[in-house]
Design brief:
alpha/beta, 18 helices
Length: 469
């Protein structure tokens, strides 16, 4: 997998000879979670401090003896980071809401996601239940009277998030599973702006905010990264970029709630603001932020930014200097490309839940939210590589895409181990204490997993205005 990922990221295969991995992660699973975790963390590190890393000064050599050493147990802590969060010394992991779980149906199992109030309300509407605590207690009985696929379609139709539990064979044979076949794990590609405009490099225009008055960052240190992501995968990727020295500004819409523990755990080193990009004033401010940014990382579903006039072509036209990295649950093609999804939902739909299930036939899960964390490392790696590639291709816009479903497909394509999925003893907090660090934040002292190989952030998430310094 490591070679495949580095090739997708347009890296030099010779760079891989510098990699050394120490120890094991302890991430026990019948699926190759350790291989996924180590490979994605490695390409992230390579993209930062490998022979042509974005965190190096131009023309400088990698630090030390040129070897990139990765502590596998630190990788495990990184992949379990949300479970290790403490605020003022108290455990602060959020976990799943009571309705966010596997439920038996009339013919199998379904996984629903109801952590957010609007998704909980959508689930209850789909089951024709009122949105109150008494109705929530009626959910199990209501689901037992419906087929799993029926539940899935009803919830999705109401704007909610659910997936019938499928076997790997059922998923691969489905139209959505087939659409994922052959797609790279990281789709890093460039758009030739000269060819598109028929002009030379002087076609790079300033756009709103006078972007050309500030020299483009030649690496990640000092690069401005606009973060339009939520939950785990995207925010962990941009958190890593902040550790390497990027100025990361996270923007959230004012009307969508986000759990405080999620913001704190993924917000290290970032500034945070709210902005309604659907309003006229908000849209203008977003254009100014894009004009002043070096990279955009977003988790909008495919086509959503295009509806705001910020599709791939529009971004290349108005902001040709940007490196753009995007994340989705299901990829950019196929009948589910527009669907909402989370790590747990992708595990259920793709067959991962079946392969990690119990002997009694009940579905299971990976020992950590590995799809999210692997995607975060790949997003960080893609931005780092894009910043490096931009040095030699000033007339191109670099775009990257990562999907959770693509990573699940890779896991399921590997030979299944007979190893039992339970004793993941490497995830005990007491064993991982040496990888934790305390940071000051407006919410108190937050204890988080220190970054992999990067300098420690100076502070936790810091509220800010939606602007660049």
């Amino acid at each position: 997998m490591l070679h495949q990922l580095w090739r997708d990221l347009r890296g030099d295969p010779a760079d891989l000879r510098t990699v050394r991995v120490g120890g094991t992660t302890g991430l026990a699973s019948p699926l190759p979670v350790e291989a996924l975790a180590v490979a994605t963390a490695t390409v992230h590190r390579l993209a930062a401090v490998g022979p042509s890393g974005a965190a190096l000064e131009v023309g400088s050599a990698p630090p030390g003896d040129g070897q990139l050493v990765l502590d596998a147990r630190h990788v495990a802590a990184d992949f379990a980071s949300e479970a290790l969060l403490r605020v003022d010394g108290r455990p602060a992991a959020g976990g799943f809401a009571p309705l966010s779980r596997f439920w038996p149906t009339s013919d199998g199992w379904v996984r629903v996601h109801a952590n957010y109030p609007h998704h909980r309300a959508a689930l209850l509407r789909a089951l024709e239940l009122d949105d109150d605590d008494r109705a929530a207690r009626a959910v199990p009985a209501a689901l037992l009277h419906l087929a799993a696929l029926d539940v899935e379609e009803r919830v999705v139709a109401q704007g909610g998030v659910a997936a019938a539990v499928r076997t790997p064979h059922e998923w691969v044979a489905s139209p959505m599973g087939a659409a994922l076949a052959g797609a790279p794990l990281v789709d890093l590609h460039c758009r030739d702006n000269d060819a598109a405009t028929g002009s030379g490099t002087d076609a790079v225009r300033p756009g709103p905010g006078g972007r050309r008055s500030r020299q483009l960052a030649r690496g990640v240190r000092g690069a401005r990264v606009l973060d339009l992501t939520r939950v785990i995968a995207g925010p962990t990727g941009t958190r890593a970029l902040a550790a390497w020295g990027a100025d990361v500004l996270r923007i959230d819409p004012p009307h969508l709630p986000e759990a405080e523990e999620s913001l704190l755990e993924t917000g290290s080193g970032k500034r945070w603001a709210r902005l309604d990009v659907a309003s006229g004033a908000g849209r203008q401010r977003l254009e100014e932020l894009l004009a002043g940014a070096d990279a955009l990382v977003h988790g909008y579903r495919p086509g959503a930014l295009a509806r705001l006039g910020l599709g791939e072509e529009e971004l290349a036209e108005r902001h040709p200097h940007l490196v753009v990295a995007s994340l989705s649950a299901w990829g950019t093609r196929g009948p589910w490309a527009q669907r909402r999804g989370f790590d747990s939902i992708v595990q259920a739909a793709s067959g991962v839940a079946v392969m990690t299930g119990a002997a009694d036939g009940s579905p299971g899960a990976l020992p950590v939210q590995a799809l999210d964390h692997a995607a975060g490392h790949l997003l960080a790696a893609a931005v780092l590589r894009g910043l490096v590639l931009r040095r030699s291709t000033p007339a191109t816009t670099w775009h990257a895409h990562v999907s959770l479903a693509g990573l699940a497909r890779w896991l399921l394509s590997q030979q299944v181990s007979s190893q039992a999925p339970a004793p993941a003893e490497g995830l005990r907090a007491s064993d991982l204490e040496r990888y934790l660090v305390d940071l000051p934040s407006p919410s108190g002292t937050v204890t988080v997993v220190r970054p992999l190989g990067a300098p420690v952030w100076q502070a936790g998430l810091t509220p800010s205005n939606p602007s660049w310094p």
